[in-house]
Design brief:
By secondary structure, the chain is mostly helical. It has helices at 11-41, 47-50, 56-91, 96-111, 114-127, 134-159, 163-171, 176-206, 210-213, 218-229, 234-264.
Length: 265
Amino acid sequence: MTAVLYDAMGPRARRRVHLGTAVGAVLAAGLLAVVLTRLSSHGQLSADRWSILFNADLRDLLLEGLLATARVAGVSLILSLGFGMLLACGRLAPQRWLRAPLRVWVEVFRGLPLLLLIFFIFLGAPALGMDVSTFWALTLGITLYQSAVMSEIIRAGILSLPRGQSEAAAAIGLGGAATMRIIVLPQAVRLMLPALISQMVVLLKETSLGFIIGYTELLRNGRIAVEYLGGAYAIPVYTGIALVYLVVNLLLSALARTVDRRTRR
C-alpha cells in the first residue's frame, strides 16, 4: 500500500519507530521524575501551596482576567477578519495601483514583531497627542498583525477555487464584485475556515502580551496574585493559568478539526 507522498513503512521501519517512541517516552518520564523530585525537595509540591488554586478570591481574579482576555480576543478577531477580507479582496483586484500598496502593507505588518506594533501604538499615540488605553493599544496591535496574516489565508482560499467558478459567473453576466460576494467568497470561506479557527488559537495567546503594557488580562492578574501571595505560590498560580490557556486552546483546536471534517464531507 502506497501513500500519496511516501511509501508505507515496512515491519522493520515500524519496529524502529516503536523503539524510538519507547526510548523517548522513558527519557521524558525520567526528566519529569527529576523535575518533580527537585520541586518536592524545595517544598513546591506541598498541598498547602497548591490548595491556593481553590481560593475564591484567586478564582475571581483569574476569571476577571480571563474575561478581559476574551474581550481583547473577540474584538481583535472581528476587526482582523474584516480588515483581512478587505486586504485579500484588494490584493486580488485587477488594478495594479491598488494591489501594489496593499501588498506592501501586508508584508510590512506581517513582518514586524507584534510586541513592537503594540509599543508603537501605546507609546507613539501619546506623542501625537492621542490618548490610547491599554485595551485599544493591545487590540489595535493584534489587529494590524493578524489582519495581514488572515488576508493571506483568505487570499489563498480564494485562489484555491477553480477558475471556472469566476468564468461561469461572468458568463451569466455577474460583475467582479457580485462574483466575489455571491460565488467565490461563500465557497472559499468553507475551505479556509479550519485555518482561520486555528489562527484564533494564536490570536488568543497573543493577548498575553498585554502584560507588558499593564493591561489586566489573565497573565497580568496572575502576576498580581503572585505579588500579593508571595513568590512561594508562583508555580501553582502560573500552572493554573497555563491550564486555563491549554483548555481554551484545545477547545478551539477541536472546533477546527470538527469544521475541517464537515467541510471535507
